[in-house]
TrEMBL record:
Compartment(s) of residence: Cytoplasmic vesicle, Secretory vesicle, Synaptic vesicle membrane
Residue ranges of domain Major facilitator superfamily (MFS) profile in the record: 116-684
Annotated source species: Neogobius melanostomus
Ranges annotated as biased composition (Gly residues): 13-30
Listed Polar residues bias regions: 1-10
Keywords for the protein's UniProt record, in alphabetical order: Cytoplasmic vesicle, Glycoprotein, Membrane, Neurotransmitter transport, Phosphoprotein, Synapse, Transmembrane, Transmembrane helix, Transport
Membrane topology: Multi-pass membrane protein
A Pfam family of this chain: LD_SV2
Broad class of the protein's primary localization: membrane
Homology family: Belongs to the major facilitator superfamily.
A GO term, aspect molecular function: transmembrane transporter activity
Protein name as annotated: Synaptic vesicle glycoprotein 2Bb
GO BP: chemical synaptic transmission; neurotransmitter transport
Length: 689
């Protein structure tokens, strides 16, 4: 039986063997090209100069005996071709990988990749925004939706849990149904349910819609990196995947900036009676979905990954897309005369495809759908199980440890930083509390707000509290007689062990839960505000946006440095070095006694750790073959979200108790992950399998 990869490529003007020589020669066993095929552009790592024709220019190293980059690349191709012919035991997968790399080099790097870069970058930006949305709206939503502490905790938890499910689900499906198709569906789910969540008036519906929104956006990270990597040639891969990581940072900046500009504007909303309220934080939820919507629109104009199509025996579609990439790039560079010389690509048909077709050809439509779905689930689970096969188990184990350690410390500290700032603010606020003991006030009209006060054993006779705010006010063991409370707005205000006689509460938000062990005598409540009401912004809430904005912005230098040196230093050294340096930064947290010190150390930690994240994502793409790449990325990203849940929960529980345990936990995780990262193989020169 003939090799299914024999004669995979046929070129114009060639009728010989499948692999013709590179260059002008009459091709013996090499990869055949037209004799007049123009010289390829071999630009620097980030060169996207368009419209520059260098055919008539003299290469400056010609007289110095320095090989021209075209000659070096041709020699590399010839070496790959020779190895394919000499190694009779070479796998079909390796042959396809090397052939695909040759074609991507011919297509060049230009307009097509940069267009796809922007579209996928917006999808990655949407993932970054999703991580911040609930944290930003929670201070307002907890008042608007009357959330308890348990409900607030569940809302924060469901973000990462839903993204964990989405990463696993869409990563597995992307290897079987296609990168583009799954990314479009995932983003569409995110957009639809993010839109619905902004209108949800109850906690249950809001939680449900955010859950489904998170499942949708959870698929972006594993698919985006897999999708983009399959349009990159080897010498561009590390750098440009690192540039792509910058969009996650931009998502944090976008979320912080828009939240800062929208949420405090309480006039940006409307209401329909008392049952439907649309406050400014709901406007922010809508605005936060714009990157996902923009990416979804852009994806409709992008093609499927040709590498995925080749893996699934759709060679004609793959050829059309590769020709589109080639022609788009060379036309943009002012060289439309360059011809895509590959005329046919042949790929073997897999047994899995045949199985689906045979099973789907029988029965009723419902039965066919059931068979397709069941078969698809089995194939996805089989792909997941293959990640721990003999050839991949060590790579999967090492990457799982690295992903978990990095996520545990990063997300744990991401929660710890703002919680520590809030704790310091609370301590400072609590230290300024005013205590009034045994005061007696008669016939007095309180027309000014009361804030941060404690009144003990006071007596208030025939007093009026009209149109004021009570903020963090506590009345203990006090007497209210013949008093009137009217148009009162309160926050953290309670009455404990008080006696209230002949007193009227008119149009207030003071309900039974505010009166703890109080004795009511001839007291009436009229037109009290039902539910919870969003009246004013606490001053400390604004700092949430500022801290997140500065933390996201601090990532920029680390992103730039890691992108520029990803191919020069190597992925392994960047991951290991960055994690170990980040571990050292955590010890500086013992010196953080002020809000400004914590913010500065947060920026330092984020700026250093982002290089490790970039390296981890690049290595994850390069370690796994195309048929398992998105699945592996999805599983590891799901593990990342699980570590995020554990880290944030554990670290938050020690706020206000001790700093030592969170610091030591993050230090141990980063050191352990960094040492394991140094054992990874160097994948800089590896052709994507």
């Amino acid at each position: 039986m003939s090799d299914p990869y024999q004669n995979n490529y046929y070129h114009q003007g060639r009728g010989g063997d499948a692999y013709g020589t590179y260059g002008e020669g009459g091709g013996h066993d090499g990869y055949g090209y037209q004799v007049d095929y123009p010289a390829q552009e071999e630009d620097a790592a980030s060169d996207v100069t368009e419209g520059h024709d260098e055919e008539d220019q003299m290469y400056e190293g010609e007289y110095q005996g320095i090989p021209h980059p075209d000659e070096q690349k041709a020699a590399q191709r010839a070496a790959r071709t020779k190895s394919r012919g000499a190694a009779s035991a070479a796998s079909e997968l390796q042959e396809l990988s090397e052939q695909y790399e040759d074609i991507m080099e011919d297509c060049g790097h230009g307009k097509f990749q940069w267009t796809l870069f922007m579209v996928l970058g917006l999808a990655l930006m949407a993932d970054g925004v999703e991580c911040f949305v609930v944290a930003f709206v929670l201070p307002s939503a907890e008042k608007d939706l009357c959330l308890s502490n348990a409900e607030k905790g569940m809302l924060g938890l469901v973000v990462f849990l839903s993204m964990m499910v989405g990463a696993f689900l869409w990563g597995g499906l992307a290897d079987k149904l296609g990168r583009r198709k799954c990314l479009i569906v995932a983003l569409a789910i995110n957009c639809v349910f993010a839109f619905l969540s902004s209108f949800a008036q109850g906690y249950g519906f809001f939680l449900f819609f955010r859950l489904l929104s998170g499942i949708g956006i959870g698929g972006t990270v594993p698919i985006v990196y897999t999708y983009f990597s399959e349009f990159l040639q080897k010498d561009k891969r590390g750098e440009h995947l690192s540039w792509l990581c910058m969009f996650w940072m931009m998502g944090g900046i976008y979320a912080s900036f828009t939240a800062w500009g929208i949420i405090p504007r309480y006039g940006w909303g409307f209401s329909m009676g008392t049952e439907f309220q649309f406050h400014s934080w709901r406007v922010f939820v809508l605005v936060a979905a714009l990157p996902a919507i923009a990416s979804l629109v852009g994806l409709t104009f992008m093609p499927e990954s040709p590498r995925f199509l080749l893996e699934n025996a759709k060679h004609d579609e793959a050829w059309m897309i590769l020709k589109q990439v080639h022609d788009t790039n060379w036309r943009a560079k002012g060289q439309p005369e360059k011809v895509f010389t590959v005329t046919h690509i042949k790929a073997p048909k897999t047994a899995e495809d045949e199985f689906i077709e045979i099973q789907a050809a029988t029965g009723t439509p419902v039965q066919r759908w059931a068979v397709r779905s069941l078969t698809l689930c089995k194939l996805v689970l089989k792909n997941v199980a293959s990640l721990v096969s003999a050839e991949l188990r060590y790579a999967t184990l090492f990457m799982a440890i690295i992903w978990f350690c990095m996520a545990f410390s990063y997300y744990g500290l991401s929660v710890w930083f703002p919680d520590m700032i809030k704790h310091l603010q609370y301590e400072e606020y609590d230290s300024k509390v005013k205590v009034f003991h045994k005061e007696r006030v008669e016939n007095f009209h309180f027309n000014f707000s009361l804030e941060n006060q404690v009144h003990k054993e006071g007596e208030y006779i025939r007093d009026k509290f009209i149109n004021i705010e009570l903020i963090s006010v506590k009345f203990e063991d006090s007497l209210f007689e013949d008093c009137r409370f009217e148009d009162i707005r309160s926050t953290d205000t309670t009455f404990e062990n008080c006696t209230i006689r002949s007193t009227v509460f008119y149009n207030t938000d003071l309900w039974e839960e505010r009166f703890i062990d109080c004795k009511m005598e001839n007291t009436t409540f009229e037109l009290n505000k039902r539910g919870c009401h969003l009246d004013a912004l606490e001053e400390n809430d604004v700092l949430i946006y500022l801290v997140s904005f500065l933390g996201s912005l601090a990532v920029l230098p680390g992103n730039i440095i890691s992108a520029l040196f990803m191919d020069k230093i190597g992925r392994v050294r960047i991951i290991g070095g960055s994690m170990l340096i980040s571990a050292g930064c955590t010890f500086l947290l013992f010196l953080s006694f002020t809000q400004s010190a914590i913010i500065a150390l947060q920026c330092l930690f984020y700026g250093v750790s982002v290089a490790a994240w970039n390296g981890i994502e690049v290595v994850t793409v390069e370690l796994y073959p195309s048929s398992k790449r998105a699945t592996a990325f999805g599983v590891l990203n799901a593990l990342c979200k699980l570590a995020a849940v554990l880290g944030s929960s554990i670290f938050a529980s020690f706020v206000g108790i001790t700093k030592a345990i969170p610091i030591l936990l993050s230090f141990a995780a980063l050191v352990g992950g960094g040492l394991v990262a140094l054992r990874l193989p160097d994948t800089r020169e590896k052709v994507l399998l």
